[in-house]
Amino acid sequence: LITAVRLRRILDSRGNPTVEADVLTESGGFGRAAAPSGASTGEYEAIELPPSEAIASAREHAVPRLVGEVHAGNQREVDAALHAADGSEDFSEIGANSAVAISMAAAKAGADVLGAPLYQHLGGAFRGDNFPIPLGNVIGGGEHAKDATNIQEFLAAPVGAPSVAEAVFANAEVHAAAADILDERGVPAAKGDEGAWAPAVDDAEAFDIMEEAVERVADDRGFEIKFGLDMAAAELYEDGEYHYGDETKSVDEQIDYVAELVTDYDLAYVEDPLDENDYEAFAELTDRVGDQTLICGDDLFVTNVSRLQEGIDKGAGNSILIKPNQIGTLTDAFDAIELATEHGYKSVVSHRSGETEDTTIAHLAVATDAPFIKTGTVQGERTAKLNELIRIAEDAV
Ligand code: PGA
Ligand code: ZN
C-alpha cells in the first residue's frame, strides 16, 4: 500500500522547473520519477500546469486518494485514482506533469517492492525479447533552436544495427560525423534543446550533411544506417499553408515535397509531416509512401487512444509517437501502444525536448516491445536513457 507521495520542483534540462514525485510503500518500496516538458507541444496534449500549481493541486486532490488506498504495484488502480482526483478530460485540474510524475514513480515503487527491474514489472513474464532501435537527433532547428533548420529534427536511424549498444554508439558517431562535415564546410553550429547540432543552414544543406554523415558511419560500421525526420509541421502550418522561411507550400505541395524526400533520401521515418488537424492529408501521404517508411503521428495523436482510433479509421499514418506526459499516465500510454499494435501501427516511445535524468521511457519501450525509441543522441539527460537501454539489454539476455 502507498504510504506517502512526495512532490517537489526540480530543474529540467532547459533550466525550467518541473515536477518530481517520490512514492513510498508500506513494505519499504520506493520510486522516484520526474515529468518532462515539450516546446513544440501538440494542441491536443494533456495540460501541463505551472509546477507549483500542479504540485499544490495534486497534494490536495490526488495524494489523499493514493495514500493508504492503492497499491503501487497496481498501475491501473494508481492511474484510475489520478483520473478520479483530476476529474477533467485532460488533467487540467492536477496537471499532466503531476500525474505523469506520480504514475511513473508508483510504477518504480511497484517494481522495487517486487525486487524486479522496471521493464520487467511493466512488461511481465510474457514480454517479447525485441529491443527498440534508437532514433537519434543529429541536426535540428524549429522550436528547439533559433536560426537553424525549418525542419525540427534530422534523426539517425541505425536500422541494421545488430544490438542496442551498437545502435547507440552508431548514432553518437553520426552526430560526431555531422560536426566534422560542418567543420569541413566552415559552418559553426550551436546545439538545440536536445543536443542536436543547430547550424544556420537551409533544410537542403542539412539533408546533404545527414546523407554524408550517415554514409560515413555506415561504411565504417558495416551495417545499414538510414535517417528520418521530425518535421513538427504543425509549427510550420499557418493559414492553410506550410511556411519555410519566406517560402510557402500548399497542402498538396507539402504532400508532394515529403513524398519526394522519402524517395530521394530513402527516409526510414517521417514524424508529423503535416498539420495536427489534417488526418486526410496524413492518410494521402501514408498511402503514397507505402510501408517502407514510418509515417508517425506525434502532435496528430498525442498518445491519445481516441485520436489514434480516428487515425486508424482514416488510414492516417502507420506509426504513433508515445509520450507519457502527453496523456498523463502510464496506463493511458500502454493502452495507446496496445491499440497501435493491434492495428499494425509501430510505436515509437519518446522523450521531450525538456527532459530530466529520469529513465522510465527506456523501460517502457522494452516492456511494450516498442520497435523504436526516440531519445536523443548525446547530452546527459538523453544519454541517461540510452545508457539505461544498454544496461537493460545486457540484463535481459
Ligand atoms: P517537444 O519536441 O518535446 O518540444 O514537443 C519533441 C517532438 O516534437 O517530438
Ligand atoms: Zn515530434
Automatic annotation (TrEMBL):
GO terms for cellular component: cell surface; extracellular region; phosphopyruvate hydratase complex. It is an enzyme of class 4 (lyase). It is found in: Cytoplasm; Secreted; Cell surface. Gene3D superfamilies: Enolase-like C-terminal domain, Enolase-like, N-terminal domain. Residues 128-396 form the Enolase C-terminal TIM barrel domain. Binds a second Mg(2+) ion via substrate during catalysis. Mg(2+) is required for catalysis and for stabilizing the dimer. It catalyses: (2R)-2-phosphoglycerate = phosphoenolpyruvate + H2O. Substrate binds at H144, E153, E271, D298, S350, H351, R352, S353, K374. The active site is at E194, K323. NCBIfam families: eno. This is Enolase. It comes from Halogranum gelatinilyticum.
